[in-house]
Amino acid sequence: MMRGPGHIATAVREPSGNITVKKEPLVSISDRYPILKKPMLRGVVALAEALVYGLKALSFSAQASGEEEEQLTTKEILMTMGFAFVLAVVLFVIIPTWAAKFIHSIADDPMVFNLFEGLLRLAIFFAYVVAISVMKDIRRVFMYHGAEHKAIHAYEAGAPLDVEHVRPFSTLHPRCGTNFLLIVMLVSVFVFAFLGWPDLWLRIATRVALLPLIAGIGYEIIRYAGRSDKRWVAVAITPGLWLQKLTTREPSDDMIEVAICALEAVKPDGEVKANA
Asked: H/E element holding 13?
């Protein structure tokens, strides 16, 4: 799936070997409500819309490959997003903040508890990424992820969009969603450190309530990093690039072909960057 300034496209290789591309106009709720384009708000909108488009792309991919007969309905998409949100809250909010209570015997500073909770959250996140990266189907997804990044790098470098010229480029990209997730995790560690240590349910409620703010901060950071060539910015995003070594893999030539087709479908006439 590739997202350009005006369209979004999903390219899928069918069982026959042909590549089919679904291209549709990129319609954002922020176009209807311009206030949502303001800093902090635009990050939350971008994250929600990315989830919706991602689920639609997966549904189209499964249908095109013959795994499903129908695409997901709006109700099914909302139910899937709701389940994913609940699972994320359990893994990255409830479990870490509950487990942090076990260090009471060696510390009594609320900030220490919150920092320990943040470290647990990071550990769970890394363990989750490592665990899914060994799954056969997920490894294939990560190979396509790498193909997307290579194609975008080639486009941004002005190289011809063919397999021969795209393959040498890196599978790591500073505007990747993996970087965004890691930044959100790190921002949450900093923000939650100053919230004190109330009872468990209040801790959970405040952390869930602050997720939009943290996502907004993370989006602004990744947006700035993608447009800056300052040395300190490059150093700051390095951990995110390291993490991409887990979430991307070297793709095969046929995967690169699919990525190129998706990028060609959304490529603007001017020199505007596309996002994976």
From this structure: strand 7-13
